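Why should sequence recovery work at all? Because a backbone constrains its sequence more than one might expect. Tight turns favour small or flexible residues, buried strands favour hydrophobic ones, and helices have their own preferences. The token representation captures these environments compactly. In the example below, the structure is given first.
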């Protein structure tokens, strides 16, 4: 099972985790490439455990990014045996719980971590994402608005806030959020904001039985996605598309059909 909308969640999560994919033990401990002094046997054991833990956490993250939930859970259980109260373990544990859609337990872990780092951007973003996934759009928006106080020009934040309004049936407020996103820009936020508004309009028209008008609005949304696909790489597009996939505005096949594969289309990262 995969959770498409957690692609950006994992990117934020990885920025929070203080270890490196290339060299987990060395990055975490700050070890240089200079010859090391001989360590006492006890310190050697602690360093080995630390290195092993970093490796386990990297494997969990890689499994999540690959959509291998069973593999992520198995490796996480090993990490929990090594260090159940380590902040890095707890953070990625919450990610796995979210992938498993065990939102209540994920929330508990994130809140516990926030007790130690109440202003941490990544943790607050991840909690907002949990709210978004559960359909608690007001709570998600309040947390996102708080984050935007320190990042007023963050286009992903504007886009997610736009979606919370739209999913509550307040298209006029969603349009106000869209106006805060510059166009053109270095991100696909505006394109996906316009697409989301068009897809919601198509749903509304379909409910009213206006099939032709609904189809026209839906095509407008797809045209915005296609335009984003000509400009931005697939990975960048998916950061914005995943929320629309999660909320069933579009399918993943529609996105990958419109957006060129890496190396065959847009060049913007």
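From this structural description, the recovered sequence reads:
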């Amino acid at each position: 099972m995969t959770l498409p909308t957690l692609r950006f969640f994992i990117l934020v999560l990885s920025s929070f985790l203080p270890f490196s994919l290339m060299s987990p033990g060395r990055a975490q401990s700050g070890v240089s490439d200079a010859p090391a002094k001989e360590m006492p046997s006890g310190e050697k054991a602690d360093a080995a455990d630390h290195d092993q833990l970093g490796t386990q956490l990297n494997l969990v993250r890689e499994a999540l990014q690959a959509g291998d939930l069973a593999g992520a859970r198995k490796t996480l259980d090993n990490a929990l045996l090594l260090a159940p109260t380590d902040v890095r373990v707890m953070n990625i544990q919450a990610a796995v719980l979210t992938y498993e859609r065990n939102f209540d337990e994920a929330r508990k872990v994130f809140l516990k971590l926030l007790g130690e780092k109440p202003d941490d951007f990544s943790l607050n973003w991840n909690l907002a994402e949990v709210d978004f996934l559960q359909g608690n759009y007001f709570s998600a928006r309040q947390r996102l608005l708080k984050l935007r106080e320190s990042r007023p020009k963050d286009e992903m934040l504007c886009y997610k806030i736009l979606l919370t309004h739209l999913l509550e049936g307040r298209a006029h407020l969603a349009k106000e959020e869209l106006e805060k996103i510059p166009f053109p820009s270095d991100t696909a936020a505006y394109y996906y904001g316009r697409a989301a508004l068009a897809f919601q309009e198509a749903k509304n028209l379909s409910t009213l039985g206006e099939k032709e008008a609904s189809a026209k609005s839906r095509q407008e949304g797809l045209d915005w996605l296609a335009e984003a696909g000509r400009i931005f790489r697939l990975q960048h597009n998916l950061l914005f598309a995943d929320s629309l996939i999660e909320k069933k505005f579009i399918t993943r096949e529609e996105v990958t059909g419109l957006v060129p594969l890496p190396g065959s289309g847009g060049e913007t990262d």
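A few observations help interpret the result. DSSP finds 14 helices and no strands in the chain.
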